[in-house]
Amino acid sequence: MKKGLVLEGGAMRGLWTAGVTDVMMEAGIEPDGLIGVSAGAAFGCNYKSRQAGRAIRYNTRFARDSRYSGWQSLLKTGDYFNAAFGYHVVPKQYDVFDDDAFEENPMEFIVVCTDVETGKPVYQPLKEANYETYEWIRASASMPLASKVVKIGRRLLLDGGVSDSIPLAYFESIGYSRNVVILTQPKGYRKEHNRLMPLMRVALRKYPQMVAAMDQRHLMYNRQLDFVAQAEEEGRCLVIRPEGKIPIGHTSHDATRMRLVYDMGRSVGERYVERIKQFYANDSTRGSEKKM
Q1: Among residues 260, 208, 246, 236, which one has the least CA distance to residue 4?
Q2: Which of 52, 95, 192, 239 has the most CB within a 10 Å radius?
Q3: Are 192 and 218 in contact (CB under 8 A)?
Q4: Which pTM was predicted?
């Protein structure tokens, strides 16, 4: 039995997820593998490096720093979240990412990106902590319109949430039979068609398959919600989701609001932590891991 952790994205809503996962880390919960999408990858990497508190720490520290994010960065570099500063300067100089711990931890870590030329998901295992690994994480979290296309080798990549927002089916397909799934939308949420599609079609006009994936994303996402609900009903996964809409936008420069969202996640994590331990330990449990 392989125990997995599935983290969807959600931009700054990912700080809620970080609150949950920090509680899990502090409780000594060690899944065999983690798959992260977008913010789930950018913040989830701290689980493999065993650095609880890091995501909220650097986001609040640099909340109003134009080197980290903002319209100035977007206009100057093409990325709202500054690629060089956020993914290569901060983890090396200001809030050091523990490369050694990342590599020594046997937990499998996979990020999901979208190939802009095909519109299909790319599932990339990351074992070494190096420049290319940071670039894969950046690619997974690079939202269309807010980010430039990221080139890694021959691939051109953007946000993994476009093609596989909640990769539970993929994780099950590679052998993870007991999965905790952390979502960033409340029960009953259904994604609607993207109102920014006219802008997407212009910005991504060189990549028609990516435009098609964006155009159909709401349908893909809602099918995945149905798949997760069925897996939850059958006892294959334990779903943790917010009780209501997380009170933060895709972007934020309000450190107080970030801390509020993170603390909300911690509160939920503290209520779930024993349930998570029981779920991972009991392969025979079916249908008893209901949400609070």
Answers
A1: 236
A2: 239
A3: yes
A4: 0.95
pLDDT tens for each residue of 201-255: 999 999 999 999 999 999 999 999 999 999 999 999 999 999 999 999 999 999 9
Give the separation between CA 107 and CA 47, rounded to whole angstroms: 9
Q: What is the pLDDT of residues 30-52, one digit of tens each?
A: 999 999 999 999 999 999 999 99
* Dihedral over Cα of 64, 69, 74, 75: its sign: positive
Take residue 208 and report the two structure tokens written for it: 């028609």
Task: Tell me the one-letter amino acid at 252.
Answer: S
pLDDT tier at 288, thresholds 50, 70, 90: very low
Buried b (16+ CB within 10 A) or exposed e, 79-116: bbbbbebbbeebbeeebebbeeebbebebbbbbbbbbb
Handedness of CA 159, 102, 254, 93 (dihedral sign): negative
**157 touches 118 (CB < 8 A):** no
- Maximum distance among all alpha carbons in the chain? 54
